[in-house]
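Here is one chain, start to finish.
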Amino acid sequence: MKIHVATDHAGLELKNSIRDYLINNGHDVTDHGAHEYDALDDYPDFIFPCAHAVAKDPSSRGIILGGSGQGEAMAANRVKGVRAAVFYNGPSEIVKLSREHNNANILSLGARFMTEDEIHSILEMWLSEPFGEGRHQKRIDKLDQ
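Its structure:
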């Protein structure tokens, strides 16, 4: 699967770990940055290119990170065609439902609230969960009008 990843400084180390994990599991990964630590960088500079890439390729997915993942999801969701869901270590059912009911194509993770092992488990669930379609599709269509 084609997967785009991006973060600001808050998720840099975790993003690099996720990128390597995905590549080692056979995914085609594009890293939109950050590529080096800069405490003054701004997440929109990395999130927007990632979100635009996902919106242009409906078969791809995106994984974005920030301290909480909230601002990053807000930025990504400004791009038409993107449906970013936030997860920072609540019930894992949230991740499943983001795909099944909402066809989330970007997962925004709170780097300050999760370990690498927790994220790997969540990623496997999110990447493998299909969209439920049916009655959920008409809701997605309304979002993209």
